[in-house]
Amino acid sequence: IMETNLGLVAGSHNNNEFIIIRQDGDFGRREVEENNGETCELCGEDIDVNEDGETFVACNECAFPVCRSCYEYERREGHQVCPQCKTRFKRLKGCARVEGDEEEDDIDDLENEFDFDGQNEEQDIQIPLSPQGEELCEENNNAIVPLSSTKLKKEKTLLQARPMDPSKDLAAYGYGSIAWKERMEKWKQRQNKIGNMRKENNDPQESDKIIDDDNEFPLMDESRQPLSRKLSIPSSQINPYLICEIWFTLSWILDQFSKWFPVIRVTYLDRLSLRYEKEGEPSQLSSIDIFVTTIDPLKESPLVTANTVLSILALDYPAQKVSCYVSDDDASMLTFEALSETCEFARKWIPFCKKFNIEPRAPEWYFAEKINYLKDKVHSSFVKERRAMKREYEEFRVRINCLVAKAKKVPEEGWTMQDGTSWPGNNIHDHPGMIQVFLGENGGCDIDGNELPRLVYVSREKKHNFNHQKKAGALNALVRVSAVLSNAPFVLNLDYNHIINNSKAIREAMCFMMEPLLGKSVCFVQFSQRFDAMEISDQLANQTNTFVDINMKGLDGIQGPTYVGTGCVFRRQALYGFDAPKKKKSPNKTCNCWLKCCCFGFCCMEKRKKKKGKKSKFEMME
């Protein structure tokens, strides 16, 4: 039972003891009596009982369990209201009056709250004990100021227990007990432990479990925790992105080299004609084989393929020097018949192109242009012949479209040729190789009697369970077939939809390939690609312009452009895989050893001796 005249109370609930610091400087140690088991909802201490055995009740309205120490502290330092019902605490008997208490008519009992007569005089000065039962030295308790005045012992004065430090208020020590300080220290240790676990494990869930399992923390500790925090990203997640950014940076730096020395190459076609096309003599220009690859005629329009072939056959180049090979990987009879119709139309189209020098020489693109086609045309018959040729092309296009519509209805027994035999390519995955020469030497002439370039249809052999390498395999087959039929020293490959919009393009390529000084060291000449009917805002158009106008010209200034898969004139010998010709050794006095410093010229001396010996032999023979 707590007495009102004991002074300052300090102790530990966990050790079941407390130390009394009396008003006159005496010290004592008592065991805590067992209570009725009801605890305070604020500090967690047991609620005191009075001499009659009744539990201390702070609030008469709701009987919220609050100990006497918390009750006095709340009245003195807090809001002076009950935490549960928010009713103002009334002053109880034996408690100090605070500001705001109601005036009472009866005599207050504060005069009898501290009684220093009788029993205090009989008590001797005692040395306080620590919670472990050890005596405390006087040197360690200099902060305790005992009141030894005899006048104060004889008088009944209204005094309050003095703290250990006279300059501090009692409220600075918490609730007046060591147990509260021990709990706060334990709480700080636990917070440090949780912080270390968060740094080591980086797992906030485990630290949250520790907080939830500890019931000895104050009720407001959880509300004092931060509402958010930041976590570092693991290096295993961020390192791949950093590596990619570093690689992209390196790639960007290397890509800038192609923009430092862009070049534009200019050709002189008149000089080429003066050197290789002399009057009265046959043309000495090199021959060229042009490859056109196509796969499925139902996906790749035969009309577009026919326009590409017509632009090749109408080139401004000697007809006997040009050979066109069309590869049909689908072995379709539709492509075969479309080429047959193209040959018939080419007999009329090629003389018209060369007579009036029209550009481009693909009829679909030529008749679709919205330009003044009468500009720079001096022939009076041009308009009449143009209308007739446009009518011929419309009929040709109708025949091609009829073939396409007919090809969509495949007979059950397969396609048959005009002689009644079965078409060899009915099974597209297993068929023999097919080669058909439509135009060429003694194979047909145009309406004016002039020779036409060679046109060859090729469908390579295919077998089941064999990798045919798609376009690369088709080009390899064309290289082998052309080596047998024409074997031109230069090769140009085109896709089915890439027309030649400049009839003098082959002549411009020969300006590099047939250059007397540097021509033998040129492997290929890459032409740029342009796409028709593309808007300026189209992303593909912008990328194509950047690649062709900047990157390709920049690479040409460093070493040479890249092969883009189409529109490239190759030297056939380079495709065969032969090594470059070795340079002849210059007639100098130095040896061709890698480590010249190791021989100190002895190998050169040996070579000189051998040469002298050979000369002497020849002299003797003479």
UniProtKB/TrEMBL annotation:
Q: Does the keyword rRNA processing apply?
A: no
Highest taxon of the source? Eukaryota
Report the locations given in the UniProt record.
Cell membrane
Which pathway is it part of? Glycan metabolism; plant cellulose biosynthesis
Q: Pfam families from the entry?
A: Cellulose_synt (PF03552), zf-UDP (PF14569)
Q: How does it sit in the membrane?
A: Multi-pass membrane protein
How is this protein named in the record? Answer: Cellulose synthase
